Amino acid sequence: MGQRFQVYIRYNGGENIVAVHLQWCWGHFAIQKTAQLLDFIQKNIQYENSSYFLKNSYDIISARDRRDYKALTALIQLNIRDGSFVNGIDLVQEACECYDEFKETDYFIINPFQQDNNDGFLVIDVQEKEEEAPKVKYCFDLCKKEKFVPISANRYYEQYEEDDYKTFAEWNNDEVAYFENLEKTLIFVESFEILNKTELKEIFEKKYSKKSNIITTIRPV
Fold this sequence. Notes:
Blueprint: E1 5-11, E2 16-22, H1 27-44, H2 67-77, E3 78-79, E4 84-85, E5 88-90, H3 91-98, E6 107-108, E7 121-127, E8 135-141, H4 153-164, H5 173-190, E9 193-194, H6 197-205, E10 208-209, H7 210-213
Parallel strand pairs: 1-7, 8-9
Antiparallel strand pairs: 1-2, 2-5, 3-4, 6-10, 7-8
Helix pairs in contact: 1-2, 1-5
């Protein structure tokens, strides 16, 4: 049982990926989570000399004290606006430890269609190109078929909006304020460019280094 959802964030010139499974995340909760992640990452990449997420500015080491990993996994599991926390499972570690095809390799591949999912997934990609400012792009995918269909935050939330507003007449002031904020949150998320199908496919076909990505931690993350 659950509202199963995954979050994938790639950064450091495409070399690092954080992948987390959440048993309870859907609809407006996923939108709020996306906004806090995009906001944090966008602010962070503005400081190029100390960013956690840019290839030439932060020395990412495979070990226990990976601040990039700690920050992202905390924000993935937290919902600051709602005041909730959902334990996540590290899908990178799971792939390397549990999938026979990667047990003896020095790399792994993440396949979102292998996950237990009924509420889609979120992908955020920090893109770096020479002589261009770093760009943060995102998309949702409803994961309905085993093919990539990147969609916007508004398109994702449309699947849940009608059910959310069924009890509108009974909302208290806190609920009204929450959904008024959600409207602003959707506008913020929609200000980011959406990943296209080719970009999305590349993220999940890439072979990622175990040395650069495996974290010594106790699951849940």
